[in-house]
Write a structure and sequence with these properties.
With 449 residues, the protein is mainly β. The chain has 3 helices and 32 strands. The chain has a single domain, classed as Neuraminidase. The chain is globular.
């Protein structure tokens, strides 16, 4: 149970500090329910099995970039097979908005010069999520939102979804192309980007082109290295309007898309749909956690996925469930997304609440999950790792030194993980990166005997 003393001292501040929850837009009843859940709800009764940190876990030095700008959104992070780090983010300074990219000069850092992706005449839409990023050798792909050229006072948030491509490792970017194929002056955003093992680019996003109360989840592909985009396809409707989509693929070519779906009675569930024809068509969505979370607004909290070489699909997500207690869960599927294991709770602290989980999975089935832990006066970034395909996890470990947010994680084929997050400082902001190398699954198991 949450400590009453900590709630009395800082519970109100903690609630107000929840970025993206938009409590000012929530109905009074929803606010009361959330407060009641934080004050009196019990933690779920199925916490994950915790393991000691395996011998051989090696953290690299922290690499920091400083951004003396008015505001910053991000980051997104990738790590290539040689260990070079890549970052994408958005920044605003003196009313000029830019989509930015940087790559490390050598494995693990330091970072090279920042490059502006958008052209001067292209005005990015200022949003809460970072540009989506994929790096493969010298090819760099980024999706981002362009403020719609025909936006009106009635549609001030209208956007075009753009794809930018660099063929020279991010030193220069070609003019962007439009991903959405409809002419509607609406939002096309909350996108995810993924490149499968055969080089296909997959994009997913939220789209309201049909004019319904709730938008739909859409996908498209590029089969020619980002030169053109295929016809857009709707995966499902009734999508929660601002929880970012996620997309990934398995070694057999199965493509998975995850999003938060709205069911009758404002029940919001994390769901997954799969494609067995390389992303051309998708089947019906499957509920992952059966959380039965009733929430009459958008939580602004996306899911995250990864797949190992044996085809196990892992997914992490945020929910408050029926008891309305914030929690981060993990589940996996061994039948290509048709059914999911019982969910495991990853957060263990009783005096903070977790937020914005992200996962990276390497081919061996080693996992790193990273998320925020928020308290009355702090916001930390923590990570938890598994070397046994999600059976046990290390206890959450704090990574940041200053108040931080928006953590992300990526991994290359060799099992080298890269974690990144934003730290607030004066003046400006900082993006901090750190690599993590974990022992092999065999070595970790031997060390635990």
């Amino acid at each position: 149970m949450y400590g009453l003393a900590s709630v009395a001292d800082g519970g109100k501040t903690m609630l107000q500090s929840m970025r993206g929850l938009r409590t000012s837009l929530m109905p009074r009843r929803a606010k009361q329910a959330l407060c009641a859940g934080l004050l009196f709800g019990l933690l779920p009764t199925m916490p994950t099995a915790l393991a000691e940190s395996p011998a051989g876990m090696q953290f690299g030095p922290k690499v920091t970039t400083e951004h003396k700008v008015k505001s910053l959104v991000g980051p997104s992070v990738q790590i290539d097979e040689a260990g070079a780090l890549s970052l994408a983010w958005m920044e605003e300074n003196k009313e000029v908005r830019s989509v930015m990219y940087a790559r490390s000069l050598e494995p693990g850092g330091p970072m090279g010069a920042s490059v502006r992706i958008n052209r001067a005449e292209d005005i990015p839409y200022w949003r809460q999520e970072a540009p989506a990023l994929v790096v493969q050798g010298e090819d760099v792909f980024v999706t981002w939102g362009l403020a719609h050229p025909k936006a009106t006072p009635e549609q001030p948030f209208a956007t075009e979804l753009r794809l930018s491509h660099s063929k020279d490792g991010g030193r220069t970017f070609q003019p962007s192309i439009v991903v959405n194929d409809d002419p509607g002056v609406i939002q096309h955003t909350f996108d995810a980007l993924h490149r499968d093992s055969e080089g296909r680019l997959h994009v997913s996003w939220i789209d309201g082109r049909e004019g319904k109360k709730d938008p739909g989840t859409y996908v498209a592909r590029s089969l020619d290295q980002g030169q053109t985009i295929t016809k857009n396809a709707k995966v499902d409707e009734g999508t929660c309007v601002c929880c970012r989509t996620a997309i990934t693929s398995g070694p057999d070519g199965t493509v998975y898309v995850a999003w938060r779906k709205i069911f009758e009675g404002n029940v919001r569930e994390t769901v997954v749909a799969r494609s067995t024809d390389h992303g051309e068509t998708f089947g019906s969505s499957v509920i992952v956690g059966h959380d039965k979370w009733v929430f009459p607004a958008c939580p602004h909290r996306p899911a995250s996925m990864g797949v190992d070489r044996q085809g196990r699909l892992y997914i992490v997500w945020y929910t408050e469930g029926t008891d309305e207690i914030p929690a981060v869960y993990l589940a996996f599927s061994d039948d290509r997304g048709q059914t999911f294991s019982p969910k495991q709770q990853l957060n263990v602290s009783k005096n903070t609440f977790p937020d914005h989980p992200q996962i990276a999975v390497d081919p061996e089935g080693r996992l790193v999950v990273i998320w925020e832990e928020q308290g009355p006066v702090k916001r930390d970034v923590v990570m938890s790792a598994s070397t046994d395909r999600g059976t046990t996890f290390t206890g959450p470990q704090k990574l940041n030194e200053r108040k931080s947010q928006t953590p992300v994680v990526a991994v290359n084929r060799h099992g080298l993980f890269a974690m990144a997050w934003m730290e607030h400082g004066m003046p400006g902001h900082k993006i901090v990166m750190q690599t993590l190398r974990m022992p092999s699954v065999t070595a970790a198991a031997a060390a635990g005997q």
